[in-house]
User: What shape does this take?
Amino acid sequence: MASKQVLIVYAHQSSGSFNSAAKDAAVEVLTAKGCTVEVSDLYAMTFKATATAEDITGKVKNADHFCYGEETKLAWEAGKLTADISEEQRKLTEADLVIFQFPMYWFTVPAIMKGWMDRVLTLGFAFTHEKRYSQGIFKDKKAMLSFTTGSQESMFSANGINGDMNVTLWPLQNGILHYCGFQVLAPQIFWAPSHVPSEARGTMLEVWRTRMQGLLGENPLAFTPLDCFDGEKGYQLKPEVHEQHAAKEFGLTVGIHLGKALPPNNQMKAGV
Assistant: This one.
């Protein structure tokens, strides 16, 4: 792990929170192992969450019909994105591993963190039509979610009222991280820390500290490679790939399930 660059994108308002403790533990352990760790503390930075024309310095190409993706691509190419976006893109370019640390809000990331994703992961910089998913721009980088829930683990099960956490994670881990090419490490989920005794919270943090000892050596979650899909036929799974899995009990992934049972823990554990 020595000399690796780590970026922690952190979203919590309170330095006394469990999320803050998890972030601090990551900084401490990874720094001790020789990593260079940068933290983007989004609330402390008052990071702008809205993707608007103000993210571009100077004139835009088409003010009457403003298209954020196309305009920010041109601005990125011309070096005309605002300083806050450019600085986060610098951090991301240098990082070998990105950890998103946050409390789950409404089954996803807080708005300020979604704004970071919307504004920093711009077209051209983070993805193109040709470079995405397994052939994505960040295919040599690793990323992961580390978050707290308000609900206990049983509520996020296949039989629980919130539904399967693997399904909840698919849009974030496949639709954002893997879409940009990241090798996605299994998430670190802290189940309902506000509803357990302080001793249990301490145990949660110790488990996280132990995991970080070998974090960068972990295998990523499994996603279906881009070349398994036919780009000339609407990016449908190629018939030969479909046939290879026809007799199998489970689908390929949570999203590409082929009408079969979802592969257990597909978005929560590597190697399944």
